[in-house]
Amino acid sequence: MTHTRSPRIVISGSGLWTPAESITNDELVNSYNAWAAKFNTDHAAAVAAGQIEEKPMSSARFIEKASGIKARHVYTRDGILDINRMRPKIPERGEDDISHQAEIAVLAARQAMEAAGKTAADIDAVIVSCAYTQRAYPAIAIEVQNVLGIEGFGFDMLMACSAATFGLHRAYDSLMAGSASCVLAVNPELVTPQVNYCDRDSHFIFGDVSTAVIMERAETAAASALPFEVLGTKALTRFSSSIRSNFGYMSRAADTDPYGWDKLFHQAGRKVFEEVSPIAAAHIRDHLASLGIRPEEVRRFWLHQANLNMNKRVIRELMGKDLDADLAPMILDTYGNTASAGSIVAFHLYNADLQPGDIGVICSFGAGYSAGSLVVRKR
């Protein structure tokens, strides 16, 4: 009997595009408070009559205490701080021009390709996986594929907070099945257009970024690449309406405001914290157990970057100790919540010091609810 050995899959390169522009908590709060004061003045009679609620004020201290965020990078500052607009101003591009989202995907992709020592000819699949795509079709992934000159196939995936890890799962499965030999997985998280900058409880959460990962079979990885062997992947979903973004093509048919507040990102923050934290901790624990690995054997956790307090709780439940920057590095303070890309940003910035044999966990969790993880080992 002939036994076929399962191929070994590695992450051989990663890339990160960070917007040049950023907004601090103080800037965001000054804008929001000015808008809220104007709203309260303009609607004073309705507020007094109990018809609507007065808009509460915010503070930079409140934001940092609630989330751990101090600033966030944004695709453009234009319009976000304008109290008569309160949303980014991003000019529409022609159909023959590269889209905004494909452009930032390509910038991260080229970095990942260089890190992995790959050319377009080496790659045969492109996965764009993120919280939102700016259009339904043609797929952003196919546009990226075209710009980079990659043959093969490409497709888009939407999985909110876990889009990056779920995209890497699909890459891993394609490589294991033999339908691809080298996959480019990209997460162009252009999230700020979906932020409600008039909502005190969420206006500070998100920033924009783009990440990319090259995943391939171990035998094709360049000697100079940074290979992390993928020991296993795991995904979990559990339906919840506690985090929602309802914008979609059906809004036009429903005769409702397609840009209404209910169509933008909104969440029940405390409920999400209480429900998602234990889901994430259990998910990681179960994934490690399935591979015969104890949590204390893990050298580093690259966790979803949504909330500092949530990550503290996940680490405490997993490890029985407090989070520290070496065990689970945080990028949330300067990047904000970059939707699915946060764990990949952390991985990209904080993996060089790991030694051969060190084990790490890349894990995302959040909207859906969802949780996705990859257990990796430095080669």
In short:
The protein has 379 residues and is an alpha+beta fold. It has helices at 25-42, 44-48, 60-67, 100-116, 140-148, 163-177, 250-253, 269-290, 308-319, 332-335, 342-349, and strands at residues 9-17, 21-24, 71-74, 125-130, 153-158, 182-189, 209-217, 228-237, 243-244, 266-267, 300-303, 359-366, 370-378.
Can you tag this structure with a few keywords?
379 residues, alpha+beta, Peroxisomal Thiolase, Chain A, domain 1, 9-stranded mixed sheet, two-stranded antiparallel sheet, 32% helix, 21% strand, globular
Can you put this structure into words, describing what you see?
This protein is an alpha+beta fold. It has a domain at 228-378: Thiolase/Chalcone synthase (Peroxisomal Thiolase, Chain A, domain 1, 3-Layer(aba) Sandwich). The chain contains eleven helices and 13 strands. The chain has helices at residues 25-42, 44-48, 60-67, 100-116, 140-148, 163-177, 250-253, 269-290, 308-319, 332-335, 342-349; strands at 9-17, 21-24, 71-74, 125-130, 153-158, 182-189, 209-217, 228-237, 243-244, 266-267, 300-303, 359-366, 370-378. β4, α5 (140-148) and β5 form a beta-alpha-beta unit. α4 crosses α5 and α8 (269-290) packs parallel to α9. The two termini are 31 Å apart. The mean pLDDT is 96.
Give the helix level as a range of percent: 25-40%
Shape: globular
CATH homology group of the domain at 228-378: Thiolase/Chalcone synthase
CATH architecture descriptor name of the domain at 228-378: 3-Layer(aba) Sandwich
